[in-house]
Design goal:
With about 260 residues, this protein is of the alpha+beta class. It folds into 2 domains: about 60-120, Type Iii Antifreeze Protein Isoform Hplc 12; about 125-255, no CATH class. About 20% of the residues lie in helices and about 20% in strands. The protein contains 3 helices and 7 strands. The longest helix has 24 residues, at about 30-55. About 25% of the residues are buried.
């Protein structure tokens, strides 16, 4: 029996060499794509800032906190700061950098209305006169800056009538209320308590106002608007008697005792 010898092992076939690996290089600042991307981002940021800045181009100016009649001497409580967009018209209104307190309004200004510089033009010389008025003849809605007419009556027992010689005189017309003091509310208010109503009148008319009162009780009539005739503001009218009595009688009934 003939022995079979094993076949000699074949040598392994060598594999072909693969592609040489490429070394990754970090991007250069001179890479055109990187430069274009940075420019696009910067352009977007600048454009967005411009749009937002244009939409928020507001300036702080003063506005009226309430209705104020012509002749009102401004205080800090009469003013509120608001941010508004005025563009080229900003110079016509009072910036919050100004301090208009103590200035006198030459015309009426409504609540929330922006305060124009022209409203502080110097009006005719005005003085403030303190008038003692019984609580029952002060309208509940009377506030600083309101526009009122003031009547004098002969006897508080007669009220605002012309019966039994109760003469009624229109003391001052369209007077601006500068201050109120002494007004009690609720159970503390009595018909005989006195409220001090400070009004502004023309300086030349102050003597006539005091003479027209002559120690008589007063009735205050609150006008429904602060927009009065600028030429008649604080004027001392020459009428009295029955012509004024009807208006004063209506005022007394509307005011009534607030106690």
């Amino acid at each position: 029996m003939t022995a079979v010898s094993p076949a000699p092992p074949q040598a392994a076939t060598p594999l072909p060499p693969g592609p040489a690996p490429r070394r990754l290089r970090p991007p250069s600042w001179l890479d055109l794509r990187l430069v274009l991307g940075v420019l696009l981002v910067l352009g977007s940021v600048l454009l967005g800032a411009r749009v937002v800045g244009a939409a928020d181009a507001t300036v702080p100016v003063w506005a009226a906190a309430g209705d104020l009649a012509a002749g009102t001497a401004l205080t800090a409580d009469d003013l509120i700061a608001v941010d508004v967009r005025l563009d080229d018209a900003a110079g016509a209104y009072l910036s919050t950098r100004t301090r208009p307190e103590g200035s006198t309004l030459s015309r009426a200004v409504r609540a929330g209305e922006l305060l124009p510089g022209s409203a502080l033009e110097e009006p005719d010389a005005l003085v403030q006169v303190a008038l003692p008025v019984q609580t029952g003849y002060v309208p509940p809605g009377l506030e600083r800056g309101g526009l009122v007419d003031v009547y004098a009556v002969a006897d508080p027992a007669l009220g605002a009538t012309t019966e039994a010689g109760g003469e009624v005189t229109l003391v001052v017309e369209q007077a601006t209320v500068q201050a109120l003091s002494g007004r009690a509310e609720g159970v503390l208010s009595t018909p005989t308590s006195t409220v001090q109503v400070v009004v502004s009148v023309a300086q030349d008319d102050a003597d006539d106002v005091l003479a027209a009162i002559g120690g008589r009780p007063l009735v205050v009539v609150l006008r429904n608007t602060v927009d009065g005739d600028a030429d008649a503001a604080g004027r001392v009218p020459a009428r009295s008697g029955s012509a004024a009595a009807g208006a004063a009688q209506t005022a007394g009934a509307a005011a009534g005792p607030t106690g």
